[in-house]
């Protein structure tokens, strides 16, 4: 016959066991519940806004992107210089996605002005880590002396 003390001990052991088991399972459930980021299948190449380049505006832009399962449903600026925010929003609105569950995520654009070598007229670059990060760089604007030799970009 089970005494009251033994029954209490069994209940406590079972309760503690269930709590431990629940604690072990919750990270697994959390990982399954976490949505995969959507795959970007099409979109325009992000460019450095010419006016922002001329006035030397650079910085980081953060934008919350909400999708409807195929395309961008809304974009909301979280931070960044307004001229760069406008360019980032315009770029994001060109994106199309592989079919997915509607989701929302924060996209980071980093706009950076690189100082060019003297009279080097090479283009900047866009490095895409889709869909979360994009780094857009452009060479600074420089006036060259026409008497000097202009070096072509390799």
Characterise this structure.
With 154 residues, the protein is α+β, with helices and mostly antiparallel strands. It folds into two domains: 1-34; 40-139, TolA/TonB C-terminal domain, CATH 3.30.2420. The chain is 30% helix and 29% strand. It contains three helices and seven strands, in the order H-E-H-E-E-H-E-E-E-E. The protein has helices at 4-33, 50-54, 82-92, and strands at 40-42, 59-67, 72-79, 96-97, 104-114, 125-129, 133-139. Strands 3-2-5-7-6 form a five-stranded mixed sheet, covered by helices on one side. It has a two-stranded antiparallel sheet with strand order 1-4. Strand 6 (125-129) and strand 7 (133-139) form a beta hairpin. It is elongated, with a radius of gyration of 27 Å.
Largest sheet: 5 strands, mixed
* Estimated share of beta-strand residues: 25-35%
CATH-assigned fold name of the largest domain: TolA/TonB C-terminal domain
Low-confidence stretches: 4-33
- How many domains? 2
Helical content stands at 25-40%
Give, in order, the helices and strands: HEHEEHEEEE
* CA-based gyration radius: 27 Å
CATH architecture designation of the largest domain: 2-Layer Sandwich
List the helices and strands and how they pair.
Blueprint: H1 4-33, E1 40-42, H2 50-54, E2 59-67, E3 72-79, H3 82-92, E4 96-97, E5 104-114, E6 125-129, E7 133-139
Parallel strand pairs: 5-7
Antiparallel strand pairs: 1-4, 2-3, 2-5, 6-7
Brief description of this entry?
This protein is of the alpha+beta class.
Keywords for this entry:
about 30% strand, 7 strands, about 150 residues, about 30% helix, alpha+beta, TolA/TonB C-terminal domain, 2 domains, 5-stranded mixed β-sheet
């Amino acid at each position: 016959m089970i005494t009251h003390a033994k029954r209490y001990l069994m209940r406590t052991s079972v309760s503690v066991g269930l709590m431990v088991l629940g604690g072990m399972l919750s990270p697994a459930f959390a990982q399954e519940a976490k949505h995969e980021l959507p795959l970007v299948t099409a979109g325009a190449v992000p460019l450095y806004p010419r006016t922002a380049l001329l006035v030397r505006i650079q910085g980081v832009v953060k934008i919350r992107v909400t999708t409807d399962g195929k395309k961008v449903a809304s974009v909301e600026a979280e931070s960044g210089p307004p001229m760069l925010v406008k360019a980032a929003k315009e770029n994001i609105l060109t994106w199309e996605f592989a079919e997915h569950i509607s989701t929302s995520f924060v996209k980071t654009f980093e706009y950076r002005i690189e100082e060019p070598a003297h009279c080097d007229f090479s283009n900047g670059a866009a490095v895409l880590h889709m869909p979360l990060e994009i780094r857009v760089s452009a060479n600074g604007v420089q006036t060259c002396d026409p008497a000097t030799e202009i070096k072509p970009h390799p």
